[in-house]
Design brief:
Structural class: alpha/beta
CATH class of the largest domain: Alpha Beta
Order of helices and strands: EHEHEHEHEEEHEEHEHEHEHH
Number of helices: 10
Shape: globular
CATH topology of the largest domain: Rossmann fold
Distance between the termini: 27 Å
Bound molecules: glutamic acid
Number of domains: 2
CATH superfamily of the largest domain: HUPs
Strand order of the largest sheet: 1-2-3
Largest sheet: 3 strands, parallel
Radius of gyration: 20 Å
CATH architecture of the largest domain: 3-Layer(aba) Sandwich
Helix content: 25-40%
Number of strands: 12
Length: about 290
């Protein structure tokens, strides 16, 4: 299989040094393997995505010396595919509507042990399961927050669930990573697969898109290591291949804080206007 990787930014702000590192690392790995480097625009959240940011992404990546295949896949064009997957999971009784607010979840998650802070998983607070016990309404897929029934999902797959890692997780996890069903239940739980208004979620879209783009190596930051647990479960559930993962170190500021979209000061565009070259950017991120 041809080595195929991708860079998948959301057009919600400027690309900064952390994005440049991720994109260049993926690009270099594709070059070294005589493979393919794809770009995917993750614009499901239309309230935050902007055409200007998308244009800036293309400009910055081209300036960095990267080339990618056209046409570029945009998630906003893939809503029917996301809906089809949800419809299938709905028919199988593996997802259920949830009407809990963040506050309801925090309260219910704290309730068993008063004073103990609720646990966080890769997708925020671990859902205490309140709506799981309500029978699903008959009929088509509702336009609601839809959660994955993790217990029913795991009952369909071997224990542990595994994926290959060529980089490292935040605690140095590398090689064949094994995820036990009990850990997936307690530390991941019933995550959201569709949000109202979006009709999908980051997790569902990424999994379906990596499969349709035949991605063999997912190169991305260590901050997404635990999100991979969700992605691998979804791949097994939907009968999709599990790619090899390469989670890389994060680029931090002088105070050791991870760079975020709001760190405009590290925007590639500003370095460029400041007279820096792509080689300078490579040196700055240690490539
Ligand atoms: N769109 C995500 C981001 O900008 C990256 C998702 C991924 O690489 O899987 O953080």
């Amino acid at each position: 299989m041809t080595f195929t990787t991708r860079f998948a930014p959301s057009p919600t702000g400027p690309l900064h040094l952390g994005h440049a590192y991720s994109a260049m690392l993926a690009y270099d790995m594709a070059q070294a393997s005589e493979g393919r480097f794809l770009l995917r625009i993750e614009d499901i959240d239309q309230s935050r995505a902007r055409a200007e940011w998308e244009a800036q992404i293309y400009e910055d990546l081209a300036w960095l010396g990267l080339t990618w295949e056209r046409p570029v896949l945009r998630q906003s064009a893939r809503l029917p595919a996301y809906r089809a997957a949800l419809t299938r999971l709905w028919a199988l009784g593996l997802i259920y509507p949830c009407s809990c607010s963040r506050r309801d979840i925090a309260q219910a998650a704290c309730a068993p042990q008063e004073g103990v802070p609720p646990a966080f998983g890769p997708d925020g607070l671990i859902y205490p399961g309140t709506c799981r016990h309500v029978p699903n309404p008959a009929g088509p897929l509702p336009n609601a927050v839809l959660r994955l029934n993790m217990a029913r999902t795991l009952a369909q797959m071997p224990d542990p669930v595994c994926f290959p890692e060529t980089g490292a997780g935040p605690e140095g996890q590398t090689g064949e990573i094994s995820l036990s069903h009990s850990m997936l239940q307690s530390d991941v739980g019933d995550i959201i697969l569709a949000r109202t208004g979006l009709g999908t979620s980051y997790h569902l879209s990424v999994v379906l898109d990596d499969a349709v783009q035949n991605i063999t190596r997912v190169v991305r930051g260590q901050d997404l290591f635990s999100a991979t647990f969700i992605h691998v479960v979804l791949q097994k559930l939907l009968g999709l291949p599990t790619p090899c993962y390469h989670h890389h170190r994060l680029i931090r500021d002088e105070a050791g804080k991870r760079l975020a979209k709001r760190d405009d000061a590290r925007a590639i565009k500003l370095y460029r206007e400041d007279g820096k070259t792509p080689a300078d950017i490579r040196a700055m991120v240690g490539l």
